[in-house]
Amino acid sequence: MADEKTTQAKTTKETTDNTETTETTRRNFLKYAWVALGAVALGEGALVTYQFFAPKASEGEFGGVFNAGLVDDYPPGSVTPFNAGRFYLVRQEDGGFLALYRKCTHLGCAVPWDQAEGKFICPCHASAFEADGEVLNPPAPRPLDRFPITINENGEILVDTGSAIQRDHPHADDAIYA
Ligand code: FES
């Protein structure tokens, strides 16, 4: 009889211990979940703060807006490099303007304009592009990207190097006219 009582007491104690262990585990889980949530919230707050205060590209720097000067400074059929802006300002024979990103669409090498050949030729794997950016020679998979241009009321050409536009092929409406 005494043995039976002892066994019963043991079982009750074990059950109580198990319940406490489960409670402790649940409490720990909740504690860690709150800590993790707090860390995520802090991380997001830090990211938003960084993005707010991070320096933006300013005018005249790559990523910002370039004032390329007056329309009349560029004769039709000309290609003018802007090294700081990483683009070429192309004035087509019909007077339209294009701003072409000099970054090769194959693997990103800087593509020089070859005046004698009348085309862009990449020094890395010999891709070639027409003056409007169209691919003449692979492996480049698509034309040179272009940057948006606006011409203001003073006849100044503004090139926004913050957003390169990818193209499957050049279009007639890519060019901007004064
Ligand atoms: S990076 Fe220009 S052809 Fe490969």
Task: Give a concise summary.
The chain has 178 residues and is an alpha+beta fold.
Helix and strand arrangement:
Blueprint: H1 2-53, E1 65-70, E2 78-82, E3 87-91, E4 97-101, E5 113-114, E6 119-121, E7 128-129, E8 135-137, E9 146-147, E10 149-151, E11 156-160
Antiparallel strand pairs: 1-11, 2-3, 3-4, 4-9, 5-6, 6-7, 7-8, 10-11
CATH homologous superfamily caption of the largest domain: Rieske [2Fe-2S] iron-sulphur domain
> Strand pairing plus helix content: what structural class?
alpha+beta
Bound molecules: FE2/S2 (inorganic) cluster
What percentage of residues falls in helices of 4 or more residues? Answer: 25-40%
What value does the average pLDDT take? 84
Q: Which CATH architecture of the largest domain? A: 3-layer Sandwich
Account of the protein in words:
- The chain folds into 2 domains: 1-54; 65-174, Rieske Iron-sulfur Protein (3-layer Sandwich).
- It is 29% helix and 23% strand.
- The mean pLDDT is 84.
- With 178 residues, the chain is an alpha+beta fold.
- It has a 4-stranded antiparallel sheet with strand order 2-3-4-9, with no helix packed on it.
- It is elongated.
